[in-house]
Specification:
The complex is a heterodimer of chains A (about 100) and B (about 170). Chain A is mostly helical and about 100 residues long. Chain A is about 70% helix and about 0% strand. Classes of the chains: A mainly alpha (about 100), B alpha/beta (about 170).
Chain lengths: ~100, ~170
């Protein structure tokens, strides 16, 4: 899918085309696999918080306050792959 | 099969002419469409005198350089210069979209840097450009790909004055 295809989808609020693109990216061209990968990343993000350990909220809040929207969005994609790697179930052929 | 003539009147056949349509079905609008037929260039010097470069989408880069951005949803439009004198251990692969199992064992299967040096020492080809070039193939904005990455690599390649450029998808 081209960038223009996605911009057109965004302009008319076609969320299904947008999320399908994300699933294809995370699933290496397999939409069902991508859906599973999204779930997997969220589960891995949840697990370290179950015991409510101390976290660096100052860092989090400062990052959210200081960094631009695109950088945070890019970080969000990085975090997806970070947690997928943490799961130990890596479906991709290469590495980030 | 598309058939055209080269500048010498010889017949050039375009292999797999339906490829673009197949890709477009799966990823609408992702392919750059060209109506012009681009003939293959002919080699202007004997092969054993030719200065050769290598351009690859394999995501090869010198260790310690900024990793290719494999997570960005729209792709990475940068390239890396890879010194043609590099040892495989000097290099690493950053990409997500092709199996690297074989390449991790022997980089030459995807980026034949030692094989090309052997061809120089055996005088099959003349010499190598100081650098080879690599980028990742996951680039979903074809206009940006053509306008920036392709132009940037073309300029960098031409600066090194190769007679022959090997282009290899990963």
């Amino acid at each position: 899918m081209s960038l223009q295809y996605l911009k057109d989808a965004d302009a008319v609020g076609d969320r299904e085309k947008l999320i399908r693109y994300v699933r294809l990216h995370f699933g290496d061209g397999n939409e069902d696999a991508g859906r599973h990968e999204i779930d997997k990343a969220w589960i891995e993000a949840l697990k370290p918080l179950l015991d409510v350990p101390p976290t660096d909220r100052e860092f989090i809040l400062a990052t959210l306050a200081e960094k631009d929207h695109a950088t945070l969005a890019h970080l969000f994609f990085h975090l997806h792959f970070y947690f997928v790697q943490k799961s130990g179930e890596w479906i991709h052929d290469g590495r980030v | 099969m598309t058939v055209a003539s080269d500048t010498n009147g010889g017949e050039i056949r375009q292999l797999r002419p339906g490829l673009w349509e197949t890709v477009n079905e799966r990823y609408p609008g992702s392919m750059i469409t060209k109506s012009d037929f681009v003939p293959l260039a002919t080699l202007s010097v004997p092969l054993n005198e030719a200065r050769v470069t290598f351009v690859s989408t394999a995501g090869i880069q010198p260790r310690g350089t900024m990793p290719f951005d494999t997570v960005h949803p729209v792709g990475d439009y940068s390239f890396r210069r890879v010194p043609s004198s590099s040892r495989p251990d000097d290099l690493e692969i950053h990409q997500l979209k092709y199996p690297t199992f074989g390449a991790e064992r022997d980089l030459n299967v995807i980026f034949p840097i030692e094989r090309l040096r052997e061809l120089v020492s055996e005088k099959v080809i003349g010499e190598l450009t100081p650098d080879f070039f690599s980028f990742i193939g996951y680039n979903m904005d074809p206009e940006r790909l053509e306008r920036t990455l392709a132009e940037d690599i073309a300029d960098a390649v031409c600066e090194q004055r190769p007679d022959l450029a090997l282009l290899s998808p990963a």
